[in-house]
């Protein structure tokens, strides 16, 4: 049974993952313990509580994790670097001399970490040369321990501050009379479309267009919105949520439409729609993780802060889905 979580505590537990050092464990069909060190962990959503991680398609443990119905993600504490190294080695019994408990389906639960998440495998998604595993968190524990940091090929206790300007050496000089290489609209636009291209094939497979995707994303953030409210929220994109878009989502079984509501035509996610939103969110999150792979955690934080300032400075007044009154 799904437990009711305190969202704030769940957020704090996820926040223990500073730069990405985890051990993911499961058990195979015979009950044998399987575990690997992974640095691809990320949160997907708070409601329902879901997380994701990825594993190389070349990993010898891939088949076991793909068949597993449950797994556990352990965010390692600062003094567990030796354990991380052990679970990264091949050809050894990684669980030798370890004391651990058992979770659902016998998955190993390690002690001494900063946080631990017991998950049901919700779905899997092919992400190029790796598989992305999305898990619904069934139970979690969070301890007041500093997390282990992995940076530039070594374990660390803190994130160093970068002094270079990321990307300066990657941009080619612009032709004469053209926009400069650091033209903001070009950089933001190209980054967006390259990331969105990672999501687009999945939208095509699900027969969703851009408008349907945006509408579902907004309903995932705040369900029960009128068609006019949805349309107003994405006005800044130049895309419209029309009556045809709403009917298309209804035909796909993703929403219901209340034509008698005030304001008229309020949309509600169906159970299928809610599941689809979470799956699409996980895919988008995976694309985001891939896009930030070359960034240090400090760079990622600064990037978000700067983008938030750009958005604030250019805000046209379009409502946000997390506002209590979108109108």
Account of the protein in words:
It contains 9 helices and 14 strands. It has 327 residues and is α+β, with helices and mostly antiparallel strands. It folds into 2 domains: 7-156, Roll (Pnp Oxidase, Chain A); 184-313, Arc Repressor Mutant, subunit A (Orthogonal Bundle), CATH 1.10.10. It has a 7-stranded antiparallel beta sheet with strand order 2-1-5-8-9-4-3. A hairpin with a 5-residue loop joins strand 1 (22-27) and strand 2. The protein starts with 6 loop residues before the first helix and ends in a 14-residue tail after the last helix. The model is unreliable at 158-169 (pLDDT under 50).
Order of strands, main sheet, comes to: 2-1-5-8-9-4-3
Order of helices and strands: HEEEEHEHEEEEEEHHEHHEEHH
Oligomer: single chain
Tally of strands: 14
* Biggest sheet record: 7 strands, antiparallel
Strand content: 15-25%
Instruction: Please state the structural category.
Output: alpha+beta
Task: State the domain count.
Answer: 2
CATH topology of the largest domain: Pnp Oxidase, Chain A
Mean of pLDDT: 84
**Can you count the helices?**
9
Q: What CATH architecture of the largest domain do you see?
A: Roll
From the spread of the alpha carbons, the general shape counts as globular
Residue share in helix: 25-40%
